[in-house]
Design goal:
With about 90 residues, the chain is an alpha+beta fold. It has one domain. It contains one helix and six strands. The strands form two sheets. The chain has a four-stranded antiparallel sheet, with helices on one face. A two-stranded antiparallel ribbon has the order 5-6. About 0% of the residues are buried.
Length: about 90
């Protein structure tokens, strides 16, 4: 099943954000990112906020607005509680 992922790349003082659709595996996500970078349609924003020596890529699954999943759950006195971001 294909899922949507939001990818954020920060490298050499530049930052970009885009979405890819792929299977939920490390290899599939990596290949989707490489394919998207190969299209050369990504807009890079220069920012003085990020260290020019550092590089990193983050990604997270994109859920529709009606889907609510807790970020953490904890069982307290037999009741499962969840906390999420809004």
């Amino acid at each position: 099943m294909l899922k949507d992922f939001q990818v954020i790349i920060c490298a050499y003082g530049y930052r970009t954000r885009f979405k890819v659709k792929c299977e939920d595996s490390a290899e599939a996500i990596e290949n989707a990112i490489v394919d998207r970078l190969g299209k050369s349609d990504i807009k890079w924003d220069e920012s003085g906020f990020y260290d020019k020596r550092k590089k990193w890529i983050t990604y997270e699954e994109v859920l529709d607005a009606n889907t609510r999943k807790p970020l953490q759950t904890k069982e307290v006195l037999g009741v499962r509680l969840g906390t999420g971001a809004s």
